[in-house]
């Protein structure tokens, strides 16, 4: 749990670094927690930051993906 909490802290630090002043993360997925907060402007900042990363651009520009589901 300590590692998870450090990850959340790092998410909040990075958000502030890129100017997301109205954003707070309380968990890694952003669902079902009243302490997860953001606004449209902050999400636009996040998208701008992410689109500067070539790996991210490659992933989000993929129109089709063929995967395999494996059952254990």
The percent range for helix content is: 40-55%
Global mean pLDDT? 95
Beta-strand percent range: under 5%
Number of helices: 3
Question: What is the ordering of alpha helices and beta strands?
Answer: HHH
Shape type: extended
Overall radius of gyration: 15 Å
Structural class, from helix and strand content?
mainly alpha
Major sheet details:
none
Number of strand segments: 0
Provide structural commentary.
The chain has 72 residues and is mainly alpha-helical. It is built from three helices and no strands.
Provide the fold topology.
Elements: H1 2-17, H2 40-51, H3 54-60
Q: Brief description of this entry?
A:
The protein has helices at 2-17, 40-51, 54-60. The model has no long low-confidence stretch (mean pLDDT 95).
Short key terms for the protein model shown above:
extended; mainly alpha; 72 residues; single chain
